[in-house]
Design brief:
heterodimer; A: 120 residues; mainly alpha; 5 helices; 78% helix; globular; B: 448 residues; alpha/beta; FAD/NAD(P)-binding domain; 2 domains; five-stranded parallel beta sheet
Chain lengths: 120, 448
Amino acid sequence: MKELDPMVFLAVFQEMLGPMLWVMLLVAVLGLLAFVALLVRERGLVSRRLVQSELLGLLGGVVALVVMARVSSSGFTDAGGPADWFLILLVYGVGAVATTILAYTVLGWWRPRRGLAAGT
Amino acid sequence: MTIDATPRNIAPLTGRRRLLAGLGALPLVGAAGATAMPARAAEPARTQARIVIAGGGAAGLTAASRLAALLDGAHITVIDGRKAHYYQPGFTLIAAGVKPQGYVISSTSEYIPKGVELIAEKVAEIDPEGKAVVTDSGKRLAYDFLILATGLELNYGAIEGMDTTRIGTNGLGSIYHSPQAAAATWQALNQFADTGGVGLFGRPLGEMKCAGAPLKYTFISDDHLRRRGNRGKAELMYMAQSKSLFGVPIVAEKVRMLFQDRGVKVHHEHVLQSIDPDRRIAIYKTPAGTLEQGYDFINVVPPMRAPEVVRNSPLPWTEGPWAADGWAEVDRQTLRHKRYPEVFAVGDIAGVPKGKTAASVKWQVPVAVSHLVGDITGKPSADMYNGYTSCPLITRLGRAMLIEFDYQDNLVMSFPGVIAPLEELWISWVMKTMALKPTYISMLRGRA
């Protein structure tokens, strides 16, 4: 095997996260399925809920950065070049998007659109 | 001897594939080639070969995992008397106060693959003429192939007055000795960062493991002092053993610039000869004679050499720069012994130029193993090791330079266009603190 092997990624992430890797993957897959199911059920996005979720997403990005700083023993003045800013944006982006989708999905299933609840 | 920088199987990866290859394994593995992908051959080769692996550190365990995956029926035995396994790249992080002592400690047995025998004894004698290894209980193990992975010996005895039991006290630090000593060194540095004074750093003559570590620790000490507002109360000196700060000229120049920026005074051709831990005096051999230098904190890096069992065997170089310290005489591209073709040396014990690092192990072992397996199957391997090694050189807490190079002092880049080799970056620090250990452990298991 002399080509890029996705198994290497898997091995490294398994060592890094342990069983948490599977928990996180499960949450991600189930969350996405529930999100898609919600979109189908409601036949589109509910803009009011989306805005609420996006607000939470902004916070989620910050939380992702704080977690990243903690696990990598970093401070907030360590960025030194473009690659660092890229990583910061990436971490923030992943945190924000994941939180938005998760929040939208949870809110959607918890409090469905009134129109649907009324059966119209 | 000329070296082919891009041997046949290590054709430079291009563009996206090269970037991805680097990402998959991070700096421990880098982009020197694709040979280090997991040893998952289509069909393991059937054999009855007896393979002895002398030493169960990073190199020995990685070799065991790869051989176990590639061979079916081989009698593979790892001999190592130490039950604990140390993740040595983490020692600096302990001594920096970033990680706890337990961060680097696991056990050798947990990485021994199925079907491989572990003999928890020291190797007492190596007899390459009789093709056998003797353990300290007198057990004689005959082999068809020997993988020499004994690691090296820290020769503290060569520094007169040095007492390893006193590490951590009275300003005496020494990271390499053990996880305990790394933690004790942090205690000493922690105190020094409060009080200031004279801090001495440096490295010994000869080959050593991770030549970047003494530099890193100087930068780390500087940063701790700055963070506490005490840099003005301290004088940091780096005693270089030669006229250069690092074996790779372009890196040496960059470090010179950084030391100048951080106010670290550099003295060249200063080699630590003796130390008086009570009076806090270090004595250096210099071209102008001996120099006595008082200190408030010192990081002692002992000279390093092959373990006695290798030095007393016929395996070391008999001439040249690696003869005196007993490094094994191997071909630098195949890691095969020059006089005993059924012997391969990998890791710290290999008498080759440059890095004695985990990254070297990562790239050496697959090459040595492929040649060994080639001997068994009768299909000779063309794999070559080009000297690739890497070092995330910490330049302050939170930043590092990802330095990767080969036998020819070329800078190699795992992440071209993304991570510049001589740039102080947070992303390189993130790799060092988050990704390196999982990659290393995956390597031990033969999965990366």
